[in-house]
Each structure stands twice: as C-alpha cells, then as structure tokens.
Amino acid sequence: xxxxxxxxxxxxSLLFITLAIWFVFSIGIFLFGAEMNxxxxxFGYPWTYWFTCQGSLGAFVILIFWxxxxxxKIDEEFGFSExxxx
Amino acid sequence: xxxxxxxxLPKVYGIYTGGFIGFIIxxxxxxxxxxxxxxxxxxxxxxxVFIYALxxxxxxxxxxxxYYVAGRQVPTVFNGMATAADWMSGASFVAMAGGIxxxxxxxxxxxxxxxxxxxxxxxxxxxxxxKFGCYTVPDFIGTRYGGNLARFSAxxxxxxxxxxxxxxxxxxxxxxxxxxxxxxxxxxxxVGLISILLCSMLGGMRGVTWTQVAQYIVLIIAYLLPVFWxxxxxxxxxxxxxxLADEVARIGELEQQFGxxxxxxxxxxxxxxxLAGITKAHSAVNATPWAFISLALAMMMGTASLPHVMMRYxxxxxxxxxxKSVGWSLFFIFLLYSSAPMLATLSKLSLIDPNLPTxxxxxxxxxxxxxxxxxxxxQANLMFISxxxxxxxxxxxEFFMGGKAVVxxxxxxxxxxxxxxxxxxxxxxxxxxxxxDGLILAIANAISHDVYYKIIDPKAETAKxxxxxxxxxxxxxxxxxxxxxxxxxxxxxxxxxxxxxxxxGLFFPLVLGVWWKRANRQGAIAGMLGGLIAGAWYLxxxxxxGSGFLGITQLTFGIFGSAVSLVLMVVVSLMTAEPDKATQKxxxxxxxxxxxxxxxxxx
Lengths: 86, 603
Known about the structure:
B: mainly alpha, 3-stranded antiparallel beta sheet, 71% helix
C-alpha cells in the first residue's frame, strides 16, 4: 500500500469516528429526549433542554477542533502537511 | 498600512470595536440629555451602515482572485467571524428567540441542526474544496465531474436555494430599516438593498469579508449585551447561560398553573396575522423524536450544501486553516445561538410571571393597555390582547405577540434605556445585511464565473469578467428586493426551504465528489437535477394539500430530495463508465493537503 493510500485510510477512519460522535450529539440522544428530560442535568436544567440549548452545540465546537488537530497529525505523519511557502 | 493589512487586522478591528462601544456610550449620554428614540434609531443604523460602506469602498479591487476569494489570505479566526456573520441571518437574529419562545423544544431542533451541520462541513467538504482551489461551488462540480451540463446544473441548484434565502434577508433589512428610519416598507427594502450592494459591489469577496467581520462584531454585541443586562436587572443571574435553571422551572410551574387553554376559532380570527399565543411548554419535550431529528438532520445537511457558507472557506490561506476556521465559525455562532434560549426564557418569564413588576398576565385589561411599551408594540402590530372570556383579567391564552417582539421588545419591557433598542436594530441590520451580501455574491459569482466565463466566453479578460460580475450583483439584488417587497413568505419559512433545496440538489454530488472516486458526470447530473426536482415536487405536493409520507413536512422536504439524489447518483454512476484516469488522479490530489491546488491561482 502506498503512502497516499495509508494516509487516506487513516483519514477515513478519523472521519468515521468524527461522524459517530456527531451522530450521538445530533441524533442519538434525541431518540430518548422525553426520558432524558425527566432528569436534572448541568446547572440544574433538564438534560434534554440543556443539550438543545448548549450541550450539543458546545460538543460540536469541541469536536471540530479535535478533528482538525487529529487530521493535522495524520497529514504530518505521512508528510502531506502544507509548507508555509506554498 | 495597506501592505501589511493582514498583520494589522487585530489592531484594526480592536480599534473598530472600541469605536463602536464608544458610539454606544455617546448615544447613551445623548439619550439622557434628551435625544429622541427615533433619532437614536436613525443614528445607530445610519452610522453602522456608513462604516460598512466605507470598508466596502476601501476593499475595492480589480483582480479576479481578490474579487472571488479575497486573495485567499483571510486568517482563520477572522474568517470564522466573517462566516458567523454570513451564516447568522436576520432570521437567526430577529426570529430565533421568538421561535424558541413560542414553540419550545420542537423548534430547538434548528439550534442543533444549524450548528451540527458544521461538523459535516469540516470533516466532509471544506478542506477538500479549499485544496481544489475553486472560486465557486459549481466550479468544483464542473471540474470534478467535467462538462458544461454538470456545471450548469450546480448553478441552477445554487440559484434556486440561495435566491429563496436572499429574498428573506432583503425583507429583513427592509423591515429593520423601515422601523429604524420610519419610512414605508416598500422604500425601506431598497434602502436595505443599496446598503447591501455598497458592501459587495466594489470589492467582491474581499469587501464582503471585511464588512462581515465588522458586522459580526456589531451583531454579537447587540445580542449579548441586552441578554446579560436583562438577566442582571431581573436578578436572574449575572451569567444567564449557567444560571437560569430556576427561571426555566418557574415557567414550567406557571404553565401548570395557567394551563394551555385552547381558543375558539372564531376568537382567533380577531388576532392580527403573524401574532401567536403561548400554546406549548417551554422546556418540556413537545415533539416526537422523528419530528425533532428529521428537522435537525435536514438543517445539518442543508448547512453542508449552502454555497455561500462553503465559499467562505475558499478564502483561507491553506487547507489546514480552512479546517480550523470551521471550528472558529461555529464557536462564534455558538455565542449567539446559546444565548437565544436564554433570551426566550427571560422574555417569557418577565411577561407572564405575576410576581414580577413587568408581568402582565393576571392584570386587568385597563392596566395592561395603559403600559407605554404595550401601546408602542401594539401599534407596531407585534402585540395584541383580547378579553375572550370577558372576565376583565388578562389570561395566558388572551395574550398574543409577534415572534420578532422577543428580540425587539424585551429590552424595552425590562426597562432598559432606548439606546439598547437602537443597538438591537443595528445588530439585526448587520445580521441581515451580511447574509444577504454572502448570498447575492454567491449567486452573482456562480453566474459570472461559471456560466459567463467558463461556458459562454472563456476568453473574456479580467476587467470584463468583473464588470459582468458586478452588473449581475445589482440585477440579482434588485430582483430579490422586488420579490421581497411583495412579502410572499415569512422570514423563517423561506430560510428553511433554502436549506432543503440546497441539500436536495447539492449534498451528495459534493460529498461523493470527494469521497467516492467512482462517482461520474452522468451520476452527478442525475443526482443534482433529480434531487432538486424531487424535492420541489414534494414541497408543491404538500403545499397543495398532499398528505406527505414518513412524517416529512414542507420544512424537511430536503430529506426526500436528497434521498432521491443519492439513489440516482449511485445507480446512474454504476450504470455508466467510470471516470477517466485524469479525474481519478485529480480526486487523489484533492485528498492530500500538500502540493498545488487543482485549479490555478487565477483561472
């Protein structure tokens, strides 16, 4: 397998992990919205309400930065990161 | 300073922010000295629009790459701010808190959808399209799949989606300009349009970028300052986001106490159009999982298909920066979106809690009608009360309000000085203008670059291309304003449709263009046109009394459209020959960040 294929392999697994986390916070938890809202969550808000106001939104922000850093590492590992002069 | 303008950005916008805060303070002092509310409103809108126009003029350019992609040198964080302004429309600013106020949980699917979509943008598309080096989204489709028909199909989808969206934005600028400047809406729409064109016409993407950053700063101050101020004034907590649990619970109690009394249809006829009462629980789950998830999913996939957002990531200096920039965009969006539910909570509680001095439920009609702010907003057609049961006391089901009133009227209800209302008007104007600019530019660029330059006249010189681009900008702006002046659809309805149209036609052709080498021209064309037609058909069918299926509504028709698009694209691609070697090699190139862009610096 060439360098480039390995790079793409890793990039693709990172994508799947990222999308799995994305799925949990955008879709997964809202399958149980009614049940989850019965429980008190962060700062005293009901859990589901808190996720729709702040939780999921914040999770997406963190997820994107985490993804970007991981992808940079993968690019560096295979020597595909951009040089400043390009 | 022009030479190292980019290095000076933090300083330039720091001074700008300081200047704007200074302006707010001057207005506050002027109000104390007797400046009228009307004069303050005019000063806020006129001053900010003048600044944007000035930035637009300073950013004028005669170079194609500056005009189309701001010279690809917009730093990560600033591009994040510009995208946030590009993204958060007049609807986000003016109508979102209102939607949450009236519809609660079911509506908050939009918050999740309009943020979660950025994960798809960051992981599936933005860095790859940046590597591609395209000027517009159809530029990517046209080069990846090859041929004028593919390119043209992408332009069609882009135009349908963005145009649906832009009329709502011009409408919003018109609404705000007509309130702030006190002129009739039909004229205010054109005042709004001219302000929009001043930002984009001379500098194209470069002008739009630097005005959008300025507009973000105005709109975020205008949104957050009142939320914090109101929260503190009500004693609800100095940092509302972490401290409103008691208020949310109290609203729940009051809902129990008052009950949601259903009004008779005959009674509701007397309520002015566009106003609504509180009929849904504030924080309880009031939608089925599928209703919530389907709306969130449609908005997420729509986000990842809207060209005016995607093209912002063409302006970063590198692929790496494009990825990070998506994170910053969402961070800046998060600041506003996480505040909207807080504003809705504060607004609702201050109106309905009889224990608060501002609460009107339980008061007599004579008392409510004597309140200054009630009279003002009743006159503006945003508040209405009617004694349906004839007991002389205002009940929860007898109070009606327009969605915009949550953002526009709450500062006044809470007793904040008028200077805050002026600031909010300027913020709404900034939000609507920045989105309108992004959209008009996306359409005009696609038509000038992809249709005129790439298809009709590939030998055209830069000067001529940019002239065509600017003429189109004006023509599209006026077309949008003319339709906006007719006031066909409410602000939010058409905004959501734009997402559905975009995802129907563009989501899979874009994503598979990067992630599936086997995707070919025939498949992409079938996917784009088939998806768009299927989505549009479903919308028309449901609008004309069709029952729909699988719980897909007129707000989520993109789910049907994109499913058709995916199936067509896969089936047609597999039935026809695979893309040639050169195309496959191009896809490989796109997948690694290093090396030259696929399309040249100037193309």
